[in-house]
Amino acid sequence: MAYSEKVIDHYNNPRNVGTLNKDSKFVGTGLVGAPECGDVMRLQIEVGEDNVITDAKFKTFGCGSAIASSSLATEWLKGKTIDEALAIDNMDIVEELALPPVKIHCSVLAEDAIKSAINDYRVKNGLEAIALEKSHH
Amino acid sequence: MKQPIYLDNNATTPLDPRVLEAMLPYFTEKFGNAASRNHAFGWVAEEGVDYAREQVAKLIGCTEKEIIFTSGATEADNLAIKGVFEMYKDKGNHIITAVTEHKAVLDTCKHLEKVGARVTYLGVKEDGLIDLAELEAAMTPETILVSIMYGNNEIGVIQPVKEISAIAHKHGALFMTDATQAVGKIPVDVNADGIDLMAFSAHKMYGPKGVGALYVRRKNPRVKVTAQMDGGGHERGMRSGTLNVPGIVGLGKACELCRLEMESESIRLAALRDKLESSLSELEESYVNGNTQHRLPHVANISFKYVEGEGLMMAMSDLAVSSGSACTSASLEPSYVLKSLGLSDDLAHSSIRYGLGRFTTEAEIDQAIEVTKKAVNHLRELSPLWEMFKEGIDLSKIEWAEH
User: Rounded to whole angstroms, how far apart are CA atoms A15 and A68?
Assistant: First the structure.
């Protein structure tokens, strides 16, 4: 299968690979997917004042599109407020990376990872978790 | 060195230039229909086919009359299994095969189940070989056919065909084998191995695509199959259709080259394969899949834990290999062959098949080793599973959000 140039770029030069301190109360961690399904994403955000995301890191086990989707997500997250981050839709990722239909699940996983990281942060800071819409799978 | 390096010779092989040379006249000046009995054009084509039939027969130790030319191994598998089922209906309706067979066998059996066949799908042991005791236990008086592949296309393991055919014959059943990956690569002798029917293909042994053959035993016992295509009654009535003369000539030449060069070639390829395997085994958490004693000389199937196969192939774009991962398929199901060895889904997703061939050089293997190591290390840097493994976290204890 041919990959888009943007997927190849993110795959070859992944942005923001790494690990934040998951025990810090300023850090939210989302771990989604399953090894059996062939993709696992871990996405972390660090939240500063005014609910602004100051740092984002990822590590992904998966195909090129899964790696590119999470790499792109970290790029988009930095500088956004939590509310802005929650508005990121998986179809935005599909469009930006020109993912083919068989790879849409990679973008869904990235959106799940973002929401799951935000929820982890919210719960750590005494806020309620936001109900995630189960619109897929 | 040509890029990318071709290491997918179990999918298909390049045409040997010597095979092409033998075929070329049959496209142009020797274009006749081998069934035209009354002029020279037909005779010349028929001569070409007859000679090819001898070349093929010699490779597998049978007589020329026992070779039925087909469009490939898939057609030969269909003809053998459906043909035996229809021909021997009165004797019984039970067929035994194995879960690691090629789809051409499995789906043919599934089709027959809809029209009255009872099929037993034998599982395999961890090393990919069937359990002979299990086969013995599955045999019934209604068993008409045992169909077990010679060498596996994904992991290269060689089934104990001699023992399998003996069990089949003891119970009065025929033994058929899909030998697409084995013929031309290792010595296959239909008499020594007790084979009654055998399917194989030209394009896996440096011949052209679109041509293959079915061996059908004529003596002890005389085996018959019901034709699956109606027409002019070619190939002793078992396979109608104008013969693909250039293709058949190519298959013949390919068989001859394999017969003459197999011995030295298999030694050379096994040495390269072993070099590849031992070098890649230096990577932590890498596992060779399948039995390493009974297997084809030119294939290695290795799982690199904590990296995903398709992602890995993308990092190895300089190598043309294949993966047990099926991230692109709608089902997201990894290889059924690897799963049947008892491999967990994540290890099946992490597997790469390297298929070496006649034109593979040592320099290419050296580069394949380097590229693979670099890619595995790169992807492990990106892998949350690798990080967790390194921290000593038991991944099987984590509650994954299945999706």
Answer: 9
| AA identity, residue B31 | F
Q: Does B137 touch chain A (CB under 8 A)?
A: no
Query: pTM for the whole thing?
Result: 0.90
* Chain position carrying tokens 């590590």: A59
The two three-digit tokens of residue A119, written as one number: 């929820």
Per-residue pLDDT of B106-115, as tens digits, reads 999 999 999 9
Using an 8 Å Cβ cutoff, are B129 and B292 in contact?
Answer: no
The domain limits of chain A are 5-124
Q: What is the pLDDT of residue A135?
A: 46
* B399 reaches A (C-beta below 8 A): no
B258 annotated active-site: no
Across the interface, whether the CB atoms of B325 and A63 are under 8 A apart is answered yes
Contact A38/B329, CB-based, under 8 Å? no
For residue A89, count other CB atoms closer than 10 A to its CB: 12
Residue-wise pLDDT for B326-355, tens only, equals 544 445 578 899 999 998 888 888 899 999
Distance CA B235, CA B136 (A): 34
- Give B97: exposed, middle or buried? Use CB within 10 Å, 0-12, 13-18, 19+: buried
- What is the complex's ipTM, to 2 decimals? 0.90
Residue with tokens 């197999």: B262
What lies within 8 Å, CB to CB, of B271 at 6+ separation is none
Interface probe, candidates B307, B310, B327, B345, chain A, greatest A C-beta count within 10 A? B327
Q: Within 13 A of A105's CA, how many CA atoms are on the CB side?
A: 19
Kindly report, residue by residue over A37-90, the tens digit of the pLDDT.
888 999 999 999 899 999 999 999 998 999 999 999 999 999 999 999 999 999
Q: Is A106 a catalytic residue?
A: yes
User: Are residues B308 and A11, on separate chains, in Cβ contact within 8 Å?
Assistant: no
Count the residues in chain B: 403
* Residue of B339, B382, B399 to mutate for A, most A C-beta atoms under 10 A: B382
Fold of A5-124: Sufe protein. Chain: A (3.90.1010)
Token match 């492990």: residue? B380
Q: Quick one: which H or E segment has residue B49?
A: helix B40-60
Q: Tokens for B128?
A: 């990919």
pLDDT over threshold 50, residue B366: yes
The contacts of residue A19 (CB under 8 Å, 6+ apart) are: A44, A57, A59, B387
3-state DSSP assignment of residue B298 = coil
Between the CA of residue A81 and those of A44, A87, A118, A122, what are the distances in Å?
A: 14, 10, 11, 13
Set A37, A98, A102, A130: catalytic member = A37
